[in-house]
Amino acid sequence: MRNPHAGEPFDTTDEEIAAALLDVSIPTLMLSLVHMTGDLNLIRGRLKPAGLFLNEVQGYMSEADKAEARAIALDVIRAYRDAGCPEPRPITADELHEMMRWLVCQDVPQEYVPMLLEEMELSGEDDRWVDVAGTAEQKAAFPVVVIGCGQSGLLAGIRLKAAGIPFTIVEKNPGVGGTWWENSYPGSRVDVGNHFYCYSFEPSDEWTEYFAQQPELQAYFERVMTKHDVGAHVRWSTEVIGAEWNDADSTWLVETEGPDGVRSTLVARAVISAVGQLNRINLPEFPGADTFAGPAFHSARWDHDVELAGKRVAMIGAGATGFQIAPTIAPEVAHLTVFQRTPQWMFPNPNYHETVGPGVRWALRHLPFYGRWYRFLIFWPGCDTGLAAARVDPDYSAADGSGQQRAISATNEFTRQMFTDWIVGQCDGDEDLIARVVPDYPATGKRTLQDNGSWLRCLRRDNVELVQAGIDHIEPDAVVTADGERHPADVLVYATGFQHTAVLAPMRIIGRDGVDLREMWGERPAAYLGITVPWFPNFFMMYGPGTHLAHGGSLIFHSECQMRYIAHCLSELIARDRNTMEPLPERYADWHARTQAEMKGLVWAQPTIEHTYFKNAYGEIHTASPWRLVDYWSWTRELDLSDFQVA
Ligand code: NAP
Predict the structure, then answer these.
(1) How many CA atoms lie within 13 A of 333 on its CB side?
(2) Residue 80: what are its φ and ψ, rounded to 5°?
(3) In the chain, which stretches have pLDDT less than 70?
(4) Ligand 1 contacts CB of residue 338 (under 6 A)
(5) Is the dihedral of CA 259, 261, 267, 273 positive or negative?
(6) Strand partners, 270
(7) Is the Cα dihedral 610, 612, 618, 624 positive or negative?
(8) 546 touches ligand 1 (CB under 6 Å)
(9) Residues 6 or more apart whose Cβ sits within 8 Å of residue 41
(10) Which residue from 453, 579, 632, 639 has the highest number of Cβ atoms inside 10 Å of its Cβ?
(11) Pocket test for ligand 1, best of 321, 472, 614, 616 (most atoms within 8 A of CB)
(12) What kind and span of H or E run contains 240?
């Protein structure tokens, strides 16, 4: 069978091919040419990318070099087409490694290569798929409940279905997508490039934008769910209230509440929680909020019936969500007041709102492995360099005589200057605005935002005001700030984020000996590898504590690692007729202690970063990952049974 990534045969004319090549990433194209010809000399000459930066997909090649590459490409593609698009010859491991280094203009250490090859799936094989062992009878006796049908719950469903394990997904919303179902606010889009932010085994050549908007993301998950026939296993509009372990017969009793309020109990041998970390809304209690006379809603509960045109809108919050809402609604509203507590660091991404041209979509569909190399190109810059840059240099702090912690290392100071230049360069010398939009905490200390200029263009509009003063109270038709100023409003939007640190809330999960998981955790949620917890047999988490990604990668990548690991666990339980498995308490405690120690040396944990959704009441971070992607991938690749108590 033809490798699915080898491209579909085509009869596109020379003129159409030449037009398509005007759109594509030239370095990526050149690697596709290598596949078509099997000739590495195509990349061993003068034509090569000159550098790498996140989302810079042309490798800083000059216009002249790109034109020369296109001319070569036209000849190669024409010959490939006329030969009937033959299946490319396999490329050796050394050649692939050379191609990786060439594309990103730097060394790609050997330890990353297997992970990247798996992510790229050049073999056409889904290498993260684990065939759960056991007979059909053994599997039939092992029903699994998955909580949530966002990207990770859907992935769990796809894997369980293919493994022949009976399962039910319980989803509180009426449709698939999780965060991409709920966050339908104007301007909602992903900020990880979509040709990477999709399952490795389900690439799409249909993205219309490089960073797709919410309807397209939700449609992607819908399409994948239909293709893998998972929908029939989902109980929609049904919420899991809690789950209790029954030691007598080694089952979980999962209590659900359906749309009609009717409660029922599902019996499962294992539970996979896939509830995410950003879906329980944070609604600060401002005095007088309930007296507001107009419509008021949270960004994740957007009321699409409210007409904003001509209205005075007050938006509280200027994080990732506020950054997307304000520029989208500003042109239609009469007036927009943005209440910002802390300015955000943002970095330039000219592609942020760019559409994917028809040439790129043609290349993704027809040029062998073009999409696979493009995936690698946008994955690699976020592959652990962000984590290295987030590390505190204790000597640097001592050397910085500013008195204020502006940076945590020389690299971080460089980043601060680069981001500052990007922000200040858009302010047209407006010192008052500069003072309000340039953060005073170390760069990347909160989740850094992508920007193509739309945020500052929005703030500089005549009908937009950025307010930095704290909110004192809310009146029926205004927000009143601590300086006593009234800001009249007809509509109030809370872009105030989520209760990120309250992992698994509000569910009540009761494990062995009646241990309540959230009580046991208190403010410090933890799980071994972010997946399993002692006293909670056969309970697995995807996107669990310590796995939120602030330094790069994508949550889909993490989910694929986690589901592979969970599939290994299920294999052990099912094929060997085990009743239970749970991590050894000492492994769990050791993992948590090491994770905390690692986290303390990273920028996000710095005490100068006061307001950040990562931190708990004690200023500690238990939800985000301080680990390299390659380490997490390697730790979750196989199951080490000596970490577990298996009965
Ligand atoms: P967020 O980053 O937590 O931002 C919440 C905003 O509300 C901040 O400006 C925060 O101020 C403000 N706020 C919260 N409580 C407040 C209070 N009591 N008084 C005044 N201001 C208050 O939430 P978010 O913007 O919804 O984003 C959350 C996460 O969702 C992101 O980091 C990202 O992981 C994800 N997300 C992703 C995308 C994307 O992919 N493009 C888009 C949206 C969201 P402080 O900064 O001072 O705390």
Answers:
(1) 29
(2) -65, -45
(3) 398-403
(4) no
(5) positive
(6) 144
(7) negative
(8) no
(9) none
(10) 632
(11) 321
(12) strand 239-246
Tallying the residues shown for the chain, one arrives at: 647
- Give dist(CA 132, CA 568) in Å, integer: 7
Tokens of 448: 């850094």
Distance from the alpha carbon of residue 379 to the mean position of ligand 1, in angstroms: 24
Q: Are 530 and 546 in contact (CB under 8 A)?
A: yes
d(CA 583, CA 591): 11
Rounded to an integer, what distance in angstroms lies between the CA atom of residue 271 and that of residue 147? 8
CA-nearest residue, atom 37 of ligand 1: 320
316, β-bridge pairs: 339, 494
**Given this model, what pLDDT does residue 493 score?**
98
pTM of the complete model: 0.97
Query: CA dist 295 to 301, 311, 312, 319, 335, Å?
Result: 12, 11, 11, 21, 15
Q: At what angle do helices 113-120 and 629-637 cross, to 10 degrees?
A: 80
Q: What is the pLDDT of residue 1?
A: 80
Cβ of residue 193 lying under 6 Å from some atom of ligand 1: no
Q: Under DSSP, is residue 624 helix (H, G, I), strand (E, B) or coil?
A: strand
Q: What is the pLDDT of residue 464?
A: 98
Kindly list the structural domains of the chain, giving each domain's residue range(s) and its CATH number in brackets, ordered by start.
4-108+352-382 (no CATH), 136-280+500-580 (3.50.50.60), 289-351+385-494 (3.50.50.60)
Kindly list the distances between the CA atom of residue 9 and the CA atoms of 79, 84, 129, 368, 495, in Å, as whole numbers in the listed order: 12, 7, 28, 10, 47
Q: How far is CA 598 from the centre of its chain?
A: 22
Contacts of 645 (CB under 8 A, 6+ apart): 534, 580, 581, 582, 583, 584
Please check whether residue 527 is in contact with residue 544, taking contact to mean a CB–CB distance below 8 angstroms. yes
Between CA 490 and CA 61 the distance in angstroms is: 50
380-404 residue pLDDT tens: 999 999 999 999 999 887 555 666 7
DSSP conformational letter for 267: E
Our answer on whether the CB atom of 499 is closer than 6 Å to any ligand 1 atom is no
C-beta of 317 in contact with ligand 1 (< 6 A): yes
- Ligand 1 centroid to residue 551 C-alpha, Å: 17
- One-letter amino acid for residue 323 of the chain: F
Give the model's pLDDT for residue 402.
63
Q: State the greatest distance between any 2 C-alpha atoms of the chain, in Å, as a whole number.
A: 76
